[in-house]
Structure formats: C-alpha cells, structure tokens
Amino acid sequence: MADPAASPRVVSLVPSVTESLLAWSVRPIAVTRFCEHPELPAVGGTKDPDLAAIVALAPDLVVVNDEENRRPDADALTAAGLRLHVTHVEAVNEVDPCLDALAAAVGVERTAEEREAFHALGSGPAGPPTAGARARTAFVPIWRRCRRNRYAAAGLTCSFLERTTGFEPATPTLARWCSTS
Description:
This protein is of the alpha/beta class. Helices cover 37% and strands 10% of the residues. It contains seven helices and six strands.
C-alpha cells in the first residue's frame, strides 16, 4: 500500500485502473465520469477527456489504456509535457505484468496476498462437467462499437471463465475467441 503523503498525483482515464489505484491506497486527483467514484473529480470520459482540465491539474502521471482511450488525446497530453503510463492487455496472462508495471509507475509494491489471490483466480479450471452432466455455458456480451479488436474483452472474459469454471462457449464464433492456448 502506498503512503498517501508520498503518492504521486495521478489522473486515471481508465476505470479499472482507478479501482486498482484505490485498492493500493493511491487516491487519483481526477478520474473519468465512468469511474464509479463520485467523490473524485471527473475530467470527462474515456473517449472525450477534458484535456485542458487535466493539464491544469499538473499531475505527476496520467494513466491511459491503448484501447480504452484515444491516441490523439494521449499525444496531446504528452505534448503538454505530462508523463503518461499506458496499459495494454490482450490476454489473461498479461494482466499480472500490467499490474506490476502500474504499481512501479505509482511507487507501490504489490503485496504477496494480492499476488496469491490473483494467481488463484487463474490456477486452472474447476474441471469439466462430469460424464452425463450438462455442459456449463456462458453468454458474454461484446461492446459493439469498440474501436479495435472488439473481441479482446470477450476473449479475456471467456478465457477466465473457461479456466476457472470449465464452461463451454455458447456459440462457435465465441469459442474461437475463448481459446486459452
């Protein structure tokens, strides 16, 4: 956990990152309106951040995601002299290293308990259904207007479900995106 007095001034433009930061006792100075923390100042959305407001806050770090946020906004923040930390995750096995890099960027050391809990989530399937039992299925909605690789989030979700519950994708198209190998 971070020492609040020593924590960097961070703007989080990624809702999931906001949750990680708060779990590490790093309180962002601003977040997006999609972050579920009305007690924190909002600086626009993930696709339409208020760049002038962010620059005016003079944060030590702005966290963005290469898919969630727009490249022109990231470029504008960099051009304004702000330091960015860019997250990138396309597979389940990339989440832990992404969290390590984020923790390093904000000066936090992840706890052994957090690492163990994270690894327990992906430690393998609960097992396939027993012979004669009905296969477990899942429906995973996909955000239709995703800018790039709209199946990435569905694939991550499927991968996690497949590894932890032994589910079978409900459709052949979804099965293609759910491979953990």
